[in-house]
Amino acid sequence: MSGDAGPDSPSPVDARRMQLARSKARREIGAAEKRYADRAREIFRQEIGATVRSVSQFLIALLASDGLELDDVIETIEPGYGWPRRPRLSSRCNMSSWGKHVLRHIVAGLRPAWPDTQLMHGTSVDLSNYDSAKVRINGHSIEVRVRLKTVTFDTSFGLLRIELGRPIPETMAIGFVGRLVEEVVDYASLRGSGWRVTAVEQANSASVLIVETGSTAYRLPWAR
Question: Could you tell me which residues belong to the region Disordered (predicted)?
């Protein structure tokens, strides 16, 4: 008799029974995970449905220029990394006031708290004339970040930042302030908007146009 074999060693029947039990456990765990995922998505949609109330006007124009509907894009929104423990909820309630006093803040050398998009709920949208757009939920608002060659567009609470990818002369920057943005940066999503450049941020590597686009009231399709 082998040293590992005892009088009650597993029999072929035991082995078969264990295989069947393990197969059943895997099936039931898979079904439980599916139920959990479905319920988690339902809870996620309830959360954002209760909080989202506006959308960047630039995002609407961007999608329209590519023949896309916002409602269709929203259906693909996924929770951010670590949800529901993340992203942390901000206690700041006055971020929109930055847009009302943008020039004063820039002169003072301040910068807005542009968020870490990797932690935010969002989705990617393929566009014909741009790189993939990153649509995200930032608090109560739906925002977007998109890049076209060396130019990056990024929205937050009614403002649009257009990073030109290179610095421009100070005299030119001063001349841009007050002009229609489509006269400075010619893209389909900006044409006919009536939006004006309210300020220009100057940095060593790039100049950034600040445009006040405003936001539009919007409720998610399942929350209407």
Answer: 1-24
Burial 112-145 (b: 16+ CB within 10 A, else e): beebebeebbbbebebeebeebbbbbbbebbbbb
Q: Is residue 38 part of a domain?
A: no
User: How far is Cα 44 from Cα 80, in angstroms, rounded to an integer?
Assistant: 10
Q: Which domain holds residue 74?
A: 52-223
Q: Indicate the pTM of the whole model.
A: 0.80
In a domain, 27, yes or no: no
Residue 23 lies in a domain: no
The alpha carbons of the chain give a radius of gyration, in whole angstroms, of 26
Length of the chain: 224
C-alpha distances out from residue 172 to 122, 165, 166, 179, 221, Å: 36, 15, 13, 12, 44
pLDDT per residue as tens, the chain (224 positions): 555 678 888 899 999 999 999 999 999 999 999 999 999 999 999 999 999 999 999 999 999 999 999 999 999 999 998 899 877 776 555 544 444 444 444 333 334 444 555 678 999 999 987 778 999 999 999 999 999 888 999 999 999 999 998 899 999 999 999 999 999 999 999 999 999 999 999 887 889 999 999 999 999 999 99
Is 104 among the domain residues? yes
